[in-house]
């Protein structure tokens, strides 16, 4: 039933009721983002227990790995803005794909949210998995037909890939994250997902790889050596000697 009908039946002023609904939404958003992080000991260790979010062979006409997880140059440039609450790193994997490409669950689980408050608009899905892990599928083309509480199996289509800028031309891609169920810890998905990452990392990147700290130039320079992140923690990449420098200064 539409909320407006409910409001009239209960005799509440529309503006008051709308404000109350908005307040409840903001409260749920705050609770989702400020829940205590789960202890590391309660979270499943990586055993390549998940699969890729796309089927078929990667390539220019299907899908490619666009941006890795972690200390990417793109995240560095936005470490104080877009990624400021994620310790300055890109907290997921970006897969380039034409809009409408079927997105698949990386593992068995239960749908926790459809278009929930955990980012990557315009549409997203969160699935809870065993081991207190959650996967987030962001920038989906439309609202998923799934419902919270519904069980899904690995490889099941859960939506279609979209574009973070809503054009299907500017930035068509899927953003995939692996988190703890409290949505406070963010993990490098590579050791959790069974795939040929060495080959996937060879082509398709729309960035320039990883940001250097010239004081420790080998740190965080490979896809599998990226650090985990904690929501609200200090910036990990506030480097004194960065390379490349952020054009126009750090944002």
Give a description of the structure.
- Helix content is about 15%, strand content about 20%.
- It is an alpha+beta fold.
- Strands 1, 2, 4, 5, 6, 7, 9, 10, 11 and 13 form a 10-stranded antiparallel beta sheet that branches.
- β9 and β10 form a beta hairpin.
- The longest helix has 21 residues, at about 15-35.
- The protein is globular and about 50 Å long.
- The model is unreliable at about 1-20 (pLDDT under 50).
- This is M23ase beta-sheet core domain-containing protein.
How are the secondary structure elements laid out?
Layout: H1 3-9, H2 14-34, E1 64-67, H3 73-77, E2 93-96, E3 102-104, E4 109-114, E5 125-129, E6 133-138, E7 151-152, E8 157-160, E9 162-163, E10 172-180, E11 185-187, H4 197-200, E12 212-213, E13 229-230, E14 242-243
Organism: Deinococcus aerolatus
Pfam families: Peptidase_M23 (PF01551)
Signal peptide: 1-32
Short description:
The chain is α+β, with helices and mostly antiparallel strands and 251 residues long. It has helices spanning 3-9, 14-34, 73-77, 197-200, and strands at residues 64-67, 93-96, 102-104, 109-114, 125-129, 133-138, 151-152, 157-160, 162-163, 172-180, 185-187, 212-213, 229-230, 242-243.
């Amino acid at each position: 039933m539409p909320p407006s009908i409910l409001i009239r039946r209960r005799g509440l002023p529309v503006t008051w009721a709308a404000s109350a609904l908005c307040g409840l939404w903001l409260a749920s958003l705050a609770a989702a983002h400020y829940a205590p992080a789960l202890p590391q000991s309660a979270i499943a260790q990586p055993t390549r227990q998940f699969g890729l979010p796309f089927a078929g062979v990667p390539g220019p006409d299907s899908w490619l790995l666009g941006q890795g997880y972690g200390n990417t140059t793109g995240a560095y440039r936005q470490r104080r803005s877009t990624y400021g609450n994620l310790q300055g790193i890109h907290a997921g994997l970006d897969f380039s794909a034409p809009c409408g490409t079927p997105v698949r669950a990386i593992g068995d689980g239960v749908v926790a949210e459809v278009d929930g408050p955990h980012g990557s608009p315009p549409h997203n899905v969160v699935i809870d998995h065993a081991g207190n892990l959650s996967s987030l599928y962001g920038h989906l083309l439309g609202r998923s037909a799934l419902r919270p509480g519904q069980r899904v199996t690995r490889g099941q289509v859960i939506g279609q890939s979209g574009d973070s800028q809503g054009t299907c031309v500017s930035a068509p891609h899927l953003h995939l994250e692996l988190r703890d169920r409290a949505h406070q810890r963010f993990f490098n998905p590579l050791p959790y997902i069974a795939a040929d990452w060495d080959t996937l990392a060879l082509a398709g990147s729309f960035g320039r790889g990883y940001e250097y700290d010239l004081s420790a130039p080998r740190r965080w320079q490979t896809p599998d050596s990226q650090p985990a992140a904690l929501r609200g923690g200090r910036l990990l990449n506030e480097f004194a000697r960065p390379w490349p420098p952020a054009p126009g200064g750090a944002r």
